[in-house]
Amino acid sequence: MTLVVCRKQEDDVFIQSDSKVIDNFGAVSERSLRQNSMLGGLLKTFILDPRICLSFAGASPYATDFFKKFVKDDIGEWNTPRLVESLMLVHHASSEQCEFILCEAVNRSPRISVIKNGNLYWDEDTAWIGSQPAYSKFQSIFHKLDASIPLNERMRDAFRQVIDDETISEVGHFHMEAYLEHNFSDTGLVGGGPDSVFVYEMKSEWDTGSQVFHLPANSDTAMSMGSPVYGAYGISYFRSLSTKRHGVAMHFPHANLGILMCPQIDCERPIIFRNCSATNLLHEIWAKYQIAMEGVAVVSETEFRLIRSGPHELNI
Questions:
Q1: Opening angle at CA 234, ends 233 and 240, nearest 5
Q2: I need a labelling partner for 275 at 20 to 30 A (CA). Which of 79, 112, 160, 195 fits?
Q3: Distance (Å, rounded) from C-alpha 77 to C-alpha 66?
Q4: Percent composition of the chain: helix, strand, coil (DSSP 3-state, to 5)
Q5: Among the listed residues 276, 285, 274, 275, the one whose alpha carbon sits nearest the alpha carbon of residue 308
Q6: Considering the entire predicted model, what is its pTM?
Q7: In this structure, are residues 315 and 308 in contact, taking their beta carbons and an 8 Å threshold?
Q8: pLDDT per residue over 120-147, tens digit each?
């Protein structure tokens, strides 16, 4: 199970999802591993094409089997009716346990369709799939937040609290976000042009743990990222800059560990990179898979920097 929440506001749409997998994969040991290991999770929101974004919840093998078949086809052979019909077949084959949210960019505006409970809900303003208790928690938090705060920030705050709530065991691990980017030509995306496309959010999360910092008064002092001895934890999320392969890379600076979630390469498990800095991680992803990426990385004990990889290995 999981939780995916999607909301539309005029020409914008924001999608929140987690990466935890609780599924009947068969072997108890594998199921237990996926429940307890963050590195055993899945990307639940797939960008099938720059203008098509598909999220799923529930019986993961049905969704990943569909995606493996989808990527073998020419995208030009697919249209909305065929995609919806195929997803309905998957939904019914899973005994309605695999649910979908389909977001499309139509004339630079979002269209949301939902497949759940045996039905197709067409052109919705809001949608959710997955855990009912988790969604109830999300709603409770979301509606208490100041309405003057931008929609994406309220959704991010509420969803983050759901992930952090240990009483909701079916939702957790990584917090993935996607949205419709209207300034495609300004993002650095490969093949950019005057169009609206779906992209993943790039961001950093940080917790310095129990460490106490003593800073001199009346001076500008850079604060350390903290030490793992005190429970410090950090993660940088990088988004792909490719129109062919869409994914998210994450780097954990305290552990010198990186992972890549890219469904076009492997939609069933993350790819792990060990003993690497953030810049090394992006370089290795480009060298091995030709996926250009960008995000905010830790480049020293006290410094964050926006970095990009790609044909020219551009660092900003």
A1: 150
A2: 160
A3: 15
A4: 25, 35, 40
A5: 285
A6: 0.86
A7: yes
A8: 999 999 999 999 999 999 999 999 999 9
